[in-house]
Write a structure and sequence with these properties.
This protein is mostly helical. The protein is 53% helix and 4% strand. It folds into two domains: 7-87, no CATH class; 99-153. It is built from six helices and two strands. Strands 1-2 form a two-stranded parallel ribbon. Strand 1 (31-33), helix 2 and strand 2 form a beta-alpha-beta unit.
């Protein structure tokens, strides 16, 4: 699922994720996977160390092989708890967004933002429906547990 987006005014740099996390999140995420984490890490901690103090960062599986002087601790493959994490989700989302590049190229900025928002909403819709079903199932399960608990607590008629 795509949770948010923004149009970059300049090329991507460590400043990009810093501003995204610092300006949009009340607390920093626990984990960040980013292709340029080695430089982003230094940038973030030089500017807002208290905000990012509990954040761990990693370089995704695809990009780490291109980093020559980086610490092995940035390589997410070193951490078994990250084995099931899709480290390419940003690249995959960017490739999906390429479908709308030609259309938004000819729009005003406000129209382009609305168009991309609607496009992402359509991409997210199947997953949102899945989540709604999961939540309904969990709610029904919780309610049945409460009923069972009430039955067990009720005095028996013997």
């Amino acid at each position: 699922m795509i949770w948010g987006f923004f149009f970059m005014q300049r090329h991507e740099s460590p400043r990009t994720p810093f501003h995204m996390f610092y300006n949009r999140f009340p607390t920093a995420p626990a984990n960040i996977i980013f292709d340029n984490w080695c430089n982003t890490h230094k940038y973030m901690f030089a500017r807002e160390p208290s905000f990012f103090k509990y954040t761990r960062g990693y370089i995704d599986k695809l990009h780490f092989c291109n980093h020559c002087g980086c610490q092995i601790a940035y390589d997410m493959r070193q951490f078994t708890n990250l084995n099931g994490v899709n480290s390419q989700v940003c690249e995959q989302c960017n490739s999906l967004l390429k479908r709308v590049v030609m259309q938004i190229r000819y729009m005003r900025a406000d129209s382009a933002m609305e168009y991309v928002r609607a496009f992402i909403e359509n991409l997210n819709e199947p997953r949102l429906l899945e989540l709604e079903k999961e939540m309904a199932n969990e709610q029904a399960f919780s309610e049945s547990l409460v009923e069972l608990g009430n039955e067990l607590d009720a005095p028996s008629g013997s």
